[in-house]
Amino acid sequence: MTFRYANRADLPAIVALLADDEKGKTREEFTDPLPDAYYAAFDAMESQSTEALPNKYLLAMSGDDVVGCLQLTLIAGLSRRGQLRAQIEGVRVSSKVRGQKIGEKLIEQSISVSKSLGAHLVQFTTDKTRKDAHRFYERLGFVASHEGMKMTLD
Amino acid sequence: MTFRYANRADLPAIVALLADDEKGKTREEFTDPLPDAYYAAFDAMESQSTEALPNKYLLAMSGDDVVGCLQLTLIAGLSRRGQLRAQIEGVRVSSKVRGQKIGEKLIEQSISVSKSLGAHLVQFTTDKTRKDAHRFYERLGFVASHEGMKMTLD
């Protein structure tokens, strides 16, 4: 397995993964062609990415196939003595390759990239109903120390 | 009270607020002059800010005094049909002006700015030990739907 950042041509494969999920199947719209909103969002991510502080999708590749993905966002901030944080979102592994520790390797790769960019903290939120996911992340060393609060604006 | 984005000259006032807090008092280093790390972090925030997608501190001002602050970060992403998110961090109100609903007004201002920039979701994490904060945010309409997971890399 190899890892690389996503480019625009990977969008259909990424949205397919995002939609292949209990929550994602109602939240996403995986059509051919993809809704323009996904391309606009990709361009917005690129517009706020720098080499030092990316906001990009990291892909797990098996040959030419995208078998896993996560969004990795480096966020500069003042708190904790100006500590750089890495934030993860949209973690998915193809249902075709479950049980091969691809999720674990992808998270480890994101931690490794975050360290190399100077981050001292990796964070994300996960829906409280995803109990299996919590056990998975706790095994990898994450601590559920915070409440993740959300407000939809629609 | 007025609101504006912070500039470099506001850093001592912001770090004073970050440090005037149960968690912050051990995490921050409010000295004169400030540690360079805060200035470097401010410059990093500026480097990843665009007009459309800021990563900036929003300040509540009483005349020339900074009486409250929060970090507001707009994060483009693919999930939820390419939904733009706003993220809050480092919310503080000066202990000199508690009870004047400054925290509430500052959060409302951040929501208003987020909406105007096209965000459909506002999110943040708050330490599970901050029970009073949770009630405050739930009153404002936030839902503690997620686990906030963290891993320190040091």
Kindly describe this structure.
- Two copies of one chain form a homodimer.
- The first copy, chain A, is of the alpha+beta class.
- The first copy, chain A, has one domain: Gcn5-related N-acetyltransferase (GNAT) (Aminopeptidase), CATH 3.40.630.30.
- Helices cover 34% and strands 32% of the residues of chain A.
- A five-stranded mixed beta sheet of chain A has the order 1-2-3-4-5, with helices on both faces.
- In chain A, strand 2 and strand 3 form a beta hairpin.
- The mean pLDDT of chain A is 96.
- The interface between A and B is large, with 69 and 69 residues.
- Strand 5 of chain A pairs antiparallel with strand 6 of chain B, so a sheet runs across the interface.
Number of domains of chain A: 1
Number of strands of chain A: 6
**Any idea of the CATH topology of chain A?**
Aminopeptidase
Per CATH, the class of chain A reads Alpha Beta
Determine the strand fraction of chain A and express it as a percent band.
25-35%
Q: What would you call the structural class of chain A? A: alpha+beta
Q: Any guess at the CATH architecture of chain A?
A: 3-Layer(aba) Sandwich
**Low-confidence parts of chain A, pLDDT < 50 over ≥5 residues?**
none
User: How much helix is in the residues of chain A?
Assistant: 25-40%
Radius of gyration of chain A, Cα only, in angstroms?
A: 15 Å
The most extensive interface, with participating residues per chain, is: A-B, 69 and 69 residues
CATH superfamily of chain A: Gcn5-related N-acetyltransferase (GNAT)
